[in-house]
Design goal:
This protein is of the alpha+beta class. It has two domains: 92 residues, no CATH class; 130 residues, OB fold (Dihydrolipoamide Acetyltransferase, E2P) (Beta Barrel). Helices cover 37% and strands 16% of the residues. The protein is built from five helices and five strands; from the N terminus they run H-H-H-H-H-E-E-E-E-E. Strands 3-2-1-4-5 form a five-stranded antiparallel beta sheet. Strand 2 and strand 3 form a beta hairpin.
Length: 269
């Protein structure tokens, strides 16, 4: 069983990867630029997994045949003058204790394989949540000094994402620069500094979910806790203006905040 565990786990991983790609959910874990590469590598892995299932039994069969030939050649014949011991002794790796260890190892291997199969194939893929965002700095690495904000002048602000607006706000603009209403969609991320503010947030991914960083637009909405919970997805419409609480950065003063469904691609790139 031990010889098969690695092969079976590899097969489960390959199947899970191809299933995520087929259901358009691979983007929950990696950047779209790596989709083709990942699928190609998974297909190559399929070839190796199939080869492993074909080769391992052949190797074991040859090893068994070789052992049988050695025994037939008389390796177990008694030497002249040798008398059999009156008592049987267990060979190394045999006996009740060794048998129990083998059964325990087999059970543990099956549990690992079953757990992996359930985690990768049965459970639905899940996106990152506020639990992850709270452990990573908001609007930091993902919108660092090397990130370029979109141009407001002549730009189509209707296509701006949460990341775009976070980049613009990071430049500490004059609230008077924002004459037109904006719309942002994301999950509710409570502000750690002001109970009247929450962020419409999303994760931006550079390579994969491991390096995901939260970005968000602050929304001033007293009593928002009575309507929404953390991780609820919302769409907010309004204008950017001065923070009523006296903060130095502009906030979204919403006309409408409504619940919405999580989009098919929850991350921004």
């Amino acid at each position: 069983m031990r010889r098969w565990q690695g092969v079976i786990l590899a097969a489960i991983g390959v199947i899970a990867t191809l299933w995520l790609a087929a259901t358009n959910r691979l983007g929950f874990y990696i950047h779209p630029r790596y989709f083709v590469f990942t699928v190609v590598m998974a297909v190559i892995a399929v070839v190796f997994v199939v080869a492993a299932f074909a080769v391992v039994p052949l190797v074991r069969r040859r090893a068994t045949d070789a052992a049988g030939t050695t025994l037939d050649d008389g390796s177990e014949h008694d030497e002249p003058g040798h008398e059999h011991d009156d008592h049987d002794h267990d060979a190394p790796g045999t006996g009740p204790a060794a048998s129990a260890r083998r059964r325990l190892g087999t059970a543990a291997g099956l549990a690992i394989v079953a757990g992996t199969a359930v985690a990768l194939l049965a459970l639905p893929p899940a996106t990152l949540t506020t639990a992850t965002a709270e452990n990573r700095e908001l609007n930091a690495a993902a919108v660092g000094p090397d990130s370029a904000a979109p141009d407001l002048v002549g730009g189509d602000t209707s296509s701006f994402t949460v990341k775009d607006w976070a980049l613009i706000l990071r430049q500490d603009p004059d609230p008077g620069d924002f004459a037109d209403p904006i719309e942002v969609t994301g999950f509710v991320l409570p502000s750690p500094d002001d109970d009247d503010v929450f962020y419409v947030a999303r994760f931006t991914v550079t390579c994969c979910a491991v390096d995901a960083q939260p970005v968000g637009v602050p929304v001033h909405l007293p009593g928002w806790q009575d309507r929404f919970d953390a991780d609820d997805w919302v769409v907010a419409n309004g204008r950017l203006g001065d923070d009523p609480a006296g903060g130095t950065s502009p906030v979204l003063l919403p006309d409408v905040v409504e619940p919405t469904e999580q989009p098919e691609q929850p991350y921004v790139f």
